[in-house]
Structures are given as C-alpha cells and as structure tokens.
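Researcher: I've been going back and forth with a colleague about how Protein O-mannosyl-transferase 1 might be arranged in three dimensions. Neither of us has a model we trust, so I'd like an independent prediction. The organism is Oriolus oriolus, in case that matters for your notes. Sequence below.
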Amino acid sequence: MLGFLKEPVVVTAKINVNLVALTVMGLISRLWGLCYPQAVVFDEVYYGQFVSLYMKRIFFVDDSGPPFGHMLLALGGYLGGFDGNFLWNRIGAEYSVNVPVWSLRLLPALAGALCVPLAYQILVELHFSHCAALGAALLILLENSLITQSRFMLLESILIFFILLAVLSYLKFYNLQKHSAFSGSWWFWLLLTGVACSCAVGVKYMGLFTYMLLLAIAGLHFWHMIGDQNLSNVSLLCHFLARGLALIIIPMGMYLSFFYVHLALLYRSGPHDQIMTSAFQASLEGGLARITQGQPLEVAYGSQITLRNVLGKPMQCWLHSHTNTYPIRYENGRGSSHQQQVTCYPFKDVNNWWIVKDPGMQQLVVSNPPRPVRHGHIVQLVHGITTRYLNTHDVAAPLSPHSQEVSCYIDYNISMPAQNLWRVEIVNRESDTDVWKTILSEVRFVHVNTSAVLKASVVIGASLPEWGYRQLEVVGEKLSKGYHQSMVWNVEEHRYGKSQEQKEREVELHSPTRMDISKNLSFMAKFTELQWKILTLKNEDTEHKYSSSALDWITLDTNIAYWLHPTSGAQIHLLGNIATWASANTAALVYLCLSLWYLLRRRRKIYDIPEDAWQLWVSAGGICGGGWAVNYLPFFLMEKTLFLYHYLPALTFQILLIPVVLQHLGDHLCRSVLLKSMFSALMVAWFSSVYFVYCTFSPVTYGQPALSLTELKALRWKDTWNILIRKQ
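Model: Here is an independent structure prediction for Protein O-mannosyl-transferase 1. You can compare it with whatever you and your colleague have in mind.
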C-alpha cells in the first residue's frame, strides 16, 4: 500500500532563464537606491496629499482621474505604517522620519520593473523570435525616462504595467483560441484581460485608449470567427457572451468597485467635500453632517431654511441678504431699484436664513400638523433677520443687465409694487406631487409675475463691487434662456419655526440646528455625483515651466527637472534615451512605408513576403503601432496642460515596434549572407549606442553621483533641454 514511498517524489519545471534574468535586472534597475532622495520629487507633492488624506480617511476629489491609482499609492503608505502626517507643500522638502519613503515608492517601482518581462512575453506571444523579444525587453530596461518615472510615487509606471498586462493577456487568450477554447487557461487569460483593462482605466483615464484598442481588436477577431463555418451558432453565441462578460461586464463592475472602496475608506468630511451637493456632504462624518443631524425632512410653510446653490462654481454659496441697498446709480450710469441687496454668500451666516411663507396667511411659524410644500406650490421667501420678501422686477441686474435684479422689497410708496410670489419646481422629482425635502430636493424658484428663474450669476468676475461686499450676484433669468445648474438650489439647514415674534425668531435663527440624511443616499447616487465631478471639475490650466506640446515629445525636445539637491549639482530629470527615441521614430516610419508598399504591391497581386509573414506583420503593427497611435494622437485634441510623462505609454508601444521592424528587415530584406552579417554588426553597434546613452544619462536618472559644472553642461545635447546649472 505504501509502495509509492519507495521512489522519490520528483517535480519537473521549465524555467525561462531569459525571463528570470530580465525580471531580476528590471528589479535592480528600479529598486536600487529607491529611498534616494529623501525629499519630495516633482508630482510626489501632488499625490502625497491624497495618500495623507487616505491615511486620515478624509474625503477628497481629484479631477485627474479615478481613485484606483491613488489607492495603490496609499496601500504602500499603509504597509509602511504611514500616519499621514506630512505637509506636502513644496518640491524638495525633506521627508520627516515618519514618512516611509521606500514603502511609498515601492509599488510604482515594482510595476516599472515588471514591464521589462512583460515586453519580452508580448513579443513572444506575437510569434517573434526570442532574440527580438529579448531586444524589446532590454530597450524597456534601458529607457531612462521609464526608469525615472517608476522610481517615485507617481502613477505612469502602474498605468503602463496594467496596459502591457492587458495586451499580454489578450494575446495569450487569442493564441489559445483555436485549440483550447473554453479551457481553464483560456478563461483565465480572457478574464485577466478584462481585469487588467479595468485596472488601467482605474489608474488613469489614459488607460481607456488601450482598452478601446483591445475591444476593437477583439471585435475584429470575432467578426472573422463569424465567417468560420466550422463553428455552430450556439458556439458563436457562447464566444460572444464570454467576451462580453470578460471584456465589458467585469471591467464595469470592477470600475464601480474602485469607487465603492474609495468611498468606504474616505468617510470623513474634509476641505474637498464642499464642491459636492449638500446630500453628499451630509453623508460624511463631521462637517455638514454635524450641523444637519436631527433636521426635519419635509419643508413646510413656516420652515426656516438656508438655500445653497447646486452649481458650486466659482465657489459654493448660499442665498443671502443684508440691510444694505443697491446704489441709486451704478458706476456706468444705470439706475437701480434701490431695494435691499440679495446676493450669494460663500460663507455660513445668520443672514442666509429664509422663512417659507404661505402667501394666503400671515403667520411665519409651522402649523401643527405641518403643511408640507409640494412641487408647483406658490410661496413667498421672507428674509429671516430683516423680514423683507424676496422680490424681482423688470429692473436690470447690476452686473448682468440682460437679467432682472433680485432684491428684498422695500415699500418706498412709489409706483413699483411688490412682486414676491415664487413657484417651487422640484427638478429631481419622481412625480408632480413630490414634497420639497431638505438636502435631497433640487428646486428652482420661478417668479410668478415675470417667469424669471432665481439664479446665481456664473459670469466670470461676477462679484459685486465694494458696495456689495464682493459677494456673488444673484439675478432673475428668463426661463426661455434654458436650464443651468446655477438656477437650482437645495435646502441645506432647516428647522421648523416656532416663534411668531421677531425678537424671539432672531434668537431662534442664531441657534444651531440639530435628520440623518446619509441613509437616503445610495452608493450609486454618490458614485454618479462623484464621477460627474471628476469629469467636469477642471482646475484652470496654467502654463507650467516644464509643460510641453505633443509635437515636442516625438523628437524629445523637452525634459522635466524633477529634483535638485539643495547644495550639490545632483539632480533628477525626466529625460529619455535619445538613441531609443530616435530608433522608435525610425521604426514607426519604416513600418508605415513598408506597409504602404506591401499594400500597393498586393493590390497588383504581387506578394513580396509569405502570407504568414504578412499576417504577423499586420498583427504586430495593430498592437504596437496601434497602441502608439491611440495613446499619442488624442493629445492633439486635448485642451489641458501637457507634460512629457503623458507620452510614456505611447512610447512603450513604439519601443515594442523596434524589434518587430528589425526582425522583419533581417528575415525578408537581408537575404544574402553578407547582408545578414552587416545587419548583425549594425545591430550590435546600434544597441551599444543605446547602452552608452543610458550610462551617460544615468546620473540624472538616479540623481547620483553628483556631477560637476562641466559634466552637467556636457549633458545638454539639445539646446531645448533644461539641465539645471547653479550660478557660481
């Protein structure tokens, strides 16, 4: 029974020495001296702030993209025991002892290192030789810009890792298609393709470019499958559903999960939540939630409320009034009504309180039982402190003469009667009988007499002059002008008024309110709002010293100084290996010219290369050339500040194209022994030049050793390169 123990247990494994060696070299090149410098390097000052907020569980919004990449950086901080206490206020600031620098930079470095073996495997899966695959991996290994970008707390190396992983997974899946469809490995690589794509998009929206490319290639491959008569309709349907599940459904689910984790981690109120709606703010611990806890949900006649403008631009503000009036005449000579000013005030203040009044009754308190205000009801809004009614009339607004002035009415015994009736329209209602609700309802106030809509002016520089205390303008905008978020308001603070006497009511208005709204806001509602903010909230793009245009990237006419030692000449630059960049551009040009030549010749029924070589050439071009195009050309359409690091994903694909073109030239154009020998010698000389450039610029890639003034000047190979040289 135990006879099997008489023989030793033997495990046989195949080890690809090339792959192991490349992985080790990649790790060494990216991890060596990772803690140097012990100072904030370039955009670490930007991403570090978010890591600290994760550590403290404080909510934030970053308009640069989804949260997955930020969470990975924060994971490094968490594993290193970072408590989030560091002031990320300037590049070059020395890290304090509580900042785990190595841990924070580890995940980007690992991602950058693993890109080296991924490049090797992609070329192998494209059916190129191991020599070509080794060349691709070594070019990635010796690319100075990729090394620099992966050694700091930045996102590009993580993005490129997931992009390459997605490409490799799809190629492995596709190569299993003919002989192992629906096998375990087939499913694994298909599912991994979708997972990697969702991770790439979750790191930066630039990942969408490669995701769309892979979807297009998968669609093309499936189109060819439809023409295969050996596949039944049921089999085709199964293939279609499997691809839909793995490449669309699962990535969408994972994308949602990134936000779910993000929102679960960041449950505390902070400075960034002010741009969110009141309902979102109230779902966070602290901040608005502390103020609104215990508030009544339904707005009733007699309710005391504050009204926040939903747009939140150029800043959040609340409907406000004070005793001061509009000047009789403005600076440009136009006249006003001289009524009490109504503005939008960006701070919480007792003058932000209004009372919802029934026009048919005089009382300013909530009856028992309360009479809720519904969609379509007519109300008057009474300013709590001055007891004057919100009013608008056919008088031009101070800064927007095309719109009506909004005021609190003062009776001057002249022929300008009060026009203070407003119709409540709930924008996000489910039915026409919906009740106006605290925080949750988004409402418009339509003036009954003129059909103008109460609106916070969003004109650039729409702050009132000194007489209006630089507060934001509020106007009456005609409904015919269209809908805008600046016309929408929501009740933020709310209490049921109990005091009919003005003195008692003023005391009531000064006292703090104490409705837990968080349970009413679902994850999907929070996700939708946050996603919309990320897509629409754009910081003003300003010209940066190291910003560049997409045309500058191709020829490496630009660089970025990442760090400068405070006393020595040691410095770190994002600067590419110019030999590799020139080779990549040449390879792309050769590929394009040869492809056009082959297409013209094939049109004339002249076949210069075998059909299998042509298919290999086309498929490799689709992945490598297509990857370069989709990750580069969209930047010509973007109106944003661009930097050299935006080109790195496209560059990676272009580098993969170099060995594709070289192997094709060696196999099909160098046909004699002499030509092959010359070609091989040329390859050795070329690769030696790549290695020489890598070594030459290593001091500004790794930041050490410090270079002398003469050595720094010698590195300025282009006049457009900004190598930092201290004045003596």
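Researcher: What would you highlight for our discussion?
Model: I'd start with this: The radius of gyration is 33 Å. After that, consider the following. The CA atoms of residues 709 and 728 lie 9 Å apart.
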